[in-house]
Amino acid sequence: MTAPLIRPERAEDVSQVHALLKAAFDGAVEADMVDKLRGSGDLVLALVADQQGIAGYVAFPRLNLDLGTRTVPVIGLAPAAVAPDRQRRGIGNALIRAGLARLKDRGERLVFVLGHPAYYGRFGFKAMDGFVSRWAGPYFQTLMLAPDAPTSGKVSYPQAFADL
Questions:
Q1: Model's pTM, two decimal places?
Q2: Which residue of 38, 110, 144, 148 is most buried, as measured by CB atoms within 10 A?
Q3: What is the DSSP string of 34-60?
């Protein structure tokens, strides 16, 4: 099978993305969350892996970081998913790397993810003690895309995450 085309999500992908997320996460929670993020305009970037249909998906929603004196926009990585029958073929890796490169090119400075440290560590994510979040702990990780990115603050997620 040929390598998937990594491209921005289009309106005609929405139903396939919803079905993929339901299959990958064994339920509709993440799929419904993405629908809410899309509807509220909180997605900064959403990419699909197009390989004879949608084989994978990654979303990067807008988050806010309260620095005490001001709030700055930052990015989240959630969710990332690959169709169950196409996992372990590098699709998720390709989606995440492509998304992070595009975000860096756009001048984004900081990305947060909640996930397994061994997996996300390969992209440069690491736990940092300076950030406060509802999900703070060893699975809450940060990737600095710019050397002047903040190293502390309180992270706020969009309303779509409230149901998680």
A1: 0.95
A2: 110
A3: HHHHHHHT-EEEEEEEESSSEEEEEEE
CA diameter of the chain? 52
**Domain 5-163, architecture per CATH:** 3-Layer(aba) Sandwich (3.40)
Alpha helix ranges (H) inside the chain: 14-25, 29-40, 91-105, 117-121
Per-residue pLDDT at 161 exceeds 80: yes
What b/e string do you get for 19-38 counting C-beta neighbours within 10 Å, with b at 16 or more?
Answer: ebbbebeeeeebbebbbbbb
Mean pLDDT value across residues 122-144: 93
Structure-token pair, residue 28 = 């509709």
What's the full length of the chain, in residues? 164
Q: Could you give phi then psi for residue 90, rounded to 5 degrees?
A: 90, 5
Closest CA to 160 of 39, 8, 64: 39
